[in-house]
Amino acid sequence: xxxxxYLYRMDVLLExxxxxxxxxxxxxxxxxxxxxxxxxxFLGTKGLIKSLMGELKNVSPADRRDMGQHLxxxxxxxxxxxxxxxxxxxxxxxxxxxAIDRTLPGSPIPAGTRHPLSLVRNEIVAIFRRxxxxxxxxxxxxxxxHNFGAMNLPEDHPAxxxxxxxxxxxxxxxLLRTHTSSVQARVMEQQQPPIRVICPGRVYxxxxxxxxxxxxxxxxxxxYIDEHVSFADLKxxxxxxxxxxxxxxxxxxxxxxxxxFTEPSAEMDISCLICEGKGCSVCKHTGWVEILxxxxxxxxVLENFSIDPNKYTxxxxxxxxERITQLKYQINDLRLYSQNDVRFLQQFGGVV
Length: 352
Ligand code: 2NL
Known about the structure:
Layout (H helix, E strand, L loop, with lengths): L1 H4 L4 H16 L8 H10 L4 H7 L6 H39 L16 H15 L3 E2 L5 E3 H4 L19 E2 L2 E6 L4 H10 L4 E10 L11 E11 L4 H16 L5 E8 L2 E10 L16 E10 L1 H5 L9 E8 H9 L12 H4 L7
Parallel strand pairs: 1-5
Antiparallel strand pairs: 2-4, 3-4, 5-6, 6-10, 7-8, 8-9, 9-10
2-{3-[(4-chloropyridin-2-yl)amino]phenoxy}-N-methylacetamide (2NL) binds next to helix 8, strand 6, strand 9 and strand 10.
């Protein structure tokens, strides 16, 4: 009779206690927040052990004392296991805390240095800006007209040859610009005089790479078109530029030359910075080094953009940034500019 009345006989409860122990043994101590998950499952107010305790009233009074002891054992066992889990977790937290000391100052991120060509380009641009020149940029992939045709280069000019210029094989009408005159062509397309621009940028020529030649280099070209612009303006502008760029002691000279896009044309030399004109290997014992080409804009070029050559005149010039940089910093091999050797690049760290 008693057995039938008390639904939870001792053996049923013992089975459940055993199942609970089994679950505790298999509990995954590695899971996230393991101690708390364990507490909620076994020791919490809605946990397994509390619910088993609640069943004690359904055990016959004769077995109740015995059963209470079993359940107490189970509870102590769970509490001990919980304590171990908590300690493990605290240790893991302490371990990761000592691996990262957040009070230490951060390791500095090394700042890069500006490329010498960028430094010199920025200086050139700054000087011409003070003279009222605007800066214009354009695409490196150009068409024949902007690079050659508009600049008065005849169809059979050697610069147009595949030997000298990179053409885009998928699109033979396109090429890599050989000078930034193409940018000035685009400026003249857009705007009538007065025009006063400089065009810095990368240009390409099909050359075998050596200490003195590369398949790409950097240029700054300048263009000034207005009424009454004269060769005297050209000379004075470039003289001012050289004195600002390289120092007041530098002398200049012009030698007659030829470019298809200017007439007359002249190349400009400066007195050698290394030997101050006395003669050395840099100036090949002449005392002078060439730094740029220049001239009065050819009337044909003006006409190509519907600029009246009887009303307007202009001067233009072009210089290689590599060349100016070489003179300024005594760099003896063009390849150094593009090899990305930090031992070379870091030497310009102090210059802004
Ligand atoms: C050189 C020579 C030069 C020009 C570039 C130019 C541009 C226009 C019209 C006429 Cl839009 N000329 N540019 C003129 C003379 C010389 O460059 O040796 N460059 C590295």
